[in-house]
Design a protein that fits this description.
Chain lengths: ~350, ~350
């Protein structure tokens, strides 16, 4: 496997040619995916494509985002593929400080899917969009042969208008910023996992899937551009989100393990399955780097809203160890918090 | 769920650390046998806060599964009639040419199961396919794997088989006691929950080492370490049980019966360590029909480890990942050269996940 003449292969022999094919791990939101995207996105003449981007520079500032959804099972406690498809795109817009105004919706349907399921998913999309105050304005439906897809895949694209005074960006974190987390972590990933066939553990957990633009509006209203960065820690979990922000802002992040809210059932399931709650996906919480002078006001504003009721300070941004996230453990030692390496849970969103 | 809060209390943890510091007059070497314990120690940084040298033991089932067995698994999984089932950990362990995850990407039907009984169920629902379960692990997984074979026998499933690579802890501990300078051991709580600790009593006496049956939470480990240090300081050597909430001296006799019905003790090769007498389990003759190694003929197995991997020294506790020239450079969780970099219970992966770096590269 190492007989290729390329000099990198000579100095760093891969044990096998895994990179010749896409692995499930390439879709897990961690390091493997980062490597895949670093291979693909330069073809567009840019190093990175963010989850959402500004498409205008003048006023109003228009933000656009697109996202595909393949979650299995399609219906899970706390949501379904339809509501998730709305919330996912709405939240990607919200992390740019934008409020959604319009969504597109595309289905890829496998031949044989019960029509009733498609109706249920569509009603769920409609209801979630109404609740978010966003219209579904265009759509597309394709049917593929049996076996060519697994039931139903959904893609949504959204357009939003950025709130006046908002300028959150992944690269805007500064030393001294306070790290705020809006709520408990790990709920979505563990809920999906607990519904999987054969897992054999009962759980009363529900996914945290919900829109976050209302919470973001409250935060921006409280602090304007004092909200330096926003990120919803979906695939790859809180650890991957913070690593991305630390790298983009060239800052270090220091967390306090005892301050990170992990629901007892999430912690128990993670223990059982050997997962790290910091790597488990969320669909309804956000992490923010906020100017220390504004942190109390932002925290108070977050706690006024149901989706931010459990918001808390989990750490600080530092100038040391740029690009690196560390956590003070329960016993008082320090360890590095790395990105998820490969696959953790396939098809969670 | 209360155990999590109770055994992760930061205030109690700091108190135990202070007690260990006060009790230890020498830098004793204490080996935690189980990879789950290693994981907690490194993740919490416990070893960096106490004046005791923690030596990481061989208790990672994924790590000690022989290379030839992984290659055999890959060859079996590649057969079109086979549904190959395994715990998730095994999928990324490198064989000599590939791993199960890559085999899956190339079209092999490889599925993660969370219980061997799920694999038996799969065999029931797929009568036209051959379902193989990769039965690896210590005494902890052996009872459930035995139950799966018993269930398959009851249901007369002709399309179910197991590829067995089971290892036993006490013979490995004895081998380490013969060769390495370890002052005391933390025995693996979950293994003892099944087997009890009577097997360890003669070891403690013969090698004059304290053995403390220990759990996996931060406070469990700190308490286990403190109990071991106290024995050492008082020149005692016996088996003590820190993990009283889960372990009885005689263990779980129902589980032991299942193991005895289905398996026989045999010599076993440990990846990175070599053959240890009477340290493994194989299917008993009356269950030989369920042996995947017999059912599927596989040729051309080699056993060449990557030359840059020092897994053997890591598993015996004679070196740490930071002593390895490949650690963090040629060998990462992304591209593991050896098994200890793969599983969450592997020492190298535990170090890497906690961001520990070699001096010259940090």
């Amino acid at each position: 496997m190492t007989t290729r003449s390329d000099p990198i292969a000579a100095t760093c022999p891969a044990p096998f040619a895994e990179t010749e094919r896409v692995l499930l791990g390439h879709g897990s939101g961690g390091q493997l995916m980062a490597e895949l995207l670093a291979d693909l996105t330069p073809r567009f003449g840019v190093p990175v494509l963010e989850d959402a981007a500004l498409v205008t520079t003048g006023s109003p500032e228009v933000v656009m985002s697109t996202d595909g959804f393949v979650v299995t099972p399609r219906f899970f406690p706390g949501g379904d593929i339809g509501s998730l498809a709305v919330h996912g795109t709405v939240n990607d817009l919200a992390m740019m400080g934008a409020v959604p105004i319009a969504l597109s919706l595309a289905y890829i349907v496998e031949e044989g899917l019960p029509l009733e399921e498609l109706r249920r998913v569509t009603s769920s999309v409609a209801e979630a969009a109404r609740a978010c105050g966003v219209r579904i304005v265009t759509g597309d439906t394709k049917v593929v042969g049996k076996g060519a897809a697994d039931g139903l895949y959904v893609t949504t694209t959204g357009i939003g208008i950025r709130l006046p005074g908002a300028a959150p960006a992944a690269a805007n974190g500064r030393p001294g910023d306070v790290v705020l987390l809006s709520g408990p972590i790990g709920l979505h990933g563990v809920t999906i996992l607990s519904t999987r066939e054969g897992l054999g553990f009962e759980s009363e957990l529900t996914s945290d899937s919900r829109p976050l633009h209302g919470l973001v509006t409250a935060m921006i209203t409280a602090a304007g551009c004092g909200v330096h960065t926003l990120r919803d820690p979906t695939r790859g979990g809180l650890a991957s989100a913070l690593n991305e922000l630390a790298a983009a802002s060239r800052v270090g992040v220091e967390l306090e393990e005892s301050a990170i809210p992990v629901p007892a059932q999430v912690a128990a399931a993670c223990d059982l399955l050997g997962l790290d709650p910091l790597h488990v996906a969320n669909e309804g919480c956000l992490v923010a780097f906020v100017d220390p002078a504004e942190a109390n006001a932002v925290l108070a504003a977050m706690r006024e809203r149901p989706e931010g009721a459990a918001a808390r300070r989990i750490g600080v941004v530092v100038a040391d160890h740029p690009g690196r996230v560390t956590v003070r453990t329960l016993v008082g030692s320090w360890r590095v918090v790395d990105m998820l390496v490969g696959e953790q849970l396939p098809r969670i969103c | 769920m209360r155990y999590l809060d109770e055994y992760r209390d930061p205030v109690l943890a700091r108190r135990l650390i202070a007690e260990i510091r006060a009790a230890a007059t020498r830098p004793w070497s204490i080996m935690e046998v189980c990879g789950g314990q290693t994981h907690t120690i490194v993740r919490q940084g416990i070893d960096e806060l106490i004046p005791v040298r923690m030596v990481h033991g061989p208790g990672c089932p994924v790590c000690v599964t022989p290379l030839a067995t992984i290659d055999r698994a890959l060859a079996i999984a590649a057969r079109p009639e086979v549904i190959f089932t395994s715990f998730g950990d095994m999928l990324r362990v490198p064989g000599s040419g590939s791993d199960l995850l890559s085999a899956k990407a190339r079209g092999a039907d490889v599925r993660v199961v969370y219980s061997p009984l799920d694999a038996v169920r799969l065999a029931g629902t797929h009568p036209d396919r051959q379902v193989v379960f990769f039965a690896v692990g210590f005494e902890t997984t052996a009872p459930a794997n035995a139950m799966a074979v018993l269930r398959a026998a009851e249901e007369r499933l002709a399309n179910f088989s197991v590829l067995v690579s089971h290892v036993l802890v006490p013979p490995a501990m004895a081998a380490i006691m013969e060769s390495a300078s370890v002052d005391a051991f933390l025995a693996a709580g979950h293994v003892c929950a099944v087997m009890g600790w009577t097997e360890y009593e003669p070891l403690a006496v013969r090698y004059r080492v304290p053995i403390v049956v220990t759990g996996f939470e931060p406070l469990d480990l700190l308490e286990g370490i403190l109990m071991a240090v106290r024995q050492l300081e008082e020149e005692r050597f016996g088996v003590e049980n820190q993990y009283a909430r889960a372990v009885r001296r005689t263990g779980n006799t129902f589980a032991q019966d299942a193991i005895r019905r289905v398996f026989r003790v045999s010599d076993q090769t440990w990846r990175g360590i070599g053959e240890i007498p009477a340290s493994g389990l194989v299917l008993a003759p009356e269950f030989a029909a369920f042996d995947a190694a017999e059912r599927f003929t596989v040729g051309g197995l080699s056993a060449d480890e990557h030359p840059g991997c020092i897994a053997g020294e890591i598993l015996r506790g004679t070196l740490t990942p930071l002593d390895c020239a490949s650690y963090g450079t040629l060998c990462t969780p992304r591209r593991p050269l050896g098994a200890p970099m793969v599983s969450a219970e592997g020492t190298c992966a535990a170090y890497h996940n906690a961001g520990r770096t070699r001096q010259e590269t940090s």
